[in-house]
Model the fold of this input.
Amino acid sequence: MFYENLIYGISIIFLSLIIDMILGEVPNQVHPVIFMGKIIEKLKNYLPNTKISGLLTILTTTFIFAVISLLLLLLCAFVNQWLFIIFASLLLSTTFSINFLIESVRNIQKDLEEDIDKARKAMSYLVSRNTSELTESRITSAAIETLTENITDSIISPLFYTSIVTIFFGIIIGIIVAVIYRVSNTMDAMLGYKTKELINIGCYPAQFDDLLNYIPARITGYYVILASYFLKYDYKQSYDVMKKYALKTPSPNSGYSMAATAGALNITLVKEGVYELGYGTDELTKEKISQAINITKVSSLLFILTILIIYFILIILLM
Done:
């Protein structure tokens, strides 16, 4: 049984990565995150603005999507083995987003080359800050911050939980845990702000997301440093900046990958009035976005290779 868990797990994880990299996101009409957002929005509007409402939102949304995912996976497994593998891979691919994340930031870079107002508008869809008067360097900083922060949220965390849980409990539970993680991350993105409207109902969803990202965020920081070494960026400064600045952000997790990237690229990432990461002296040019994309690709690849190697070692040991 343990051996089968590993075979199914590695096959479905690998296929889900292929789906994400080649096909990208599934259509919005059937994308689970879209439905998550709609349910969270309805609960936010229906429930009073209290911390208990935030807890109810966590319990309700995680229960709904965990049960639906379980039923659909079991149904597919009952009908046909190949149907199960295809559906499981598609569902798992919706819990992370490598291709979309990189392309979104690459589009910002292209917009900067054409028209700064176009880049400001595009940037407004990715960040919560006011982008209407951002300079080119501030847009570049925001793009790099968004990209590198989301190495954890959009790539490492869901794959981390899926790969570990699958080893011990099987791929079905592994996928359900990844779906729960995506629910948590979506709740945090929608509710986790300290505004008058959201500070109460968003309290527990934000803390839940911080808890789930605590270990993956720190892992991500070290993979960014490792990627910097292979890319011949300043990996020593990457480590130093991460150690000194990782906890300078409001989130206990987001600073690790951002600070490590700032050090690697010898830049300073700034969100006005909130944080300043690094002591780099290089100018924040569009080329720095390309370098941050390289770091994202290589750190993600290194983490994926780590998963594959661990699985293959376990499979060989059990043969």
Observations:
- The radius of gyration is 20 Å.
- The chain has a mean pLDDT of 93.
- Strands lie at 269-271, 275-277.
- Residues 70 and 145 are 35 Å apart (CA to CA).
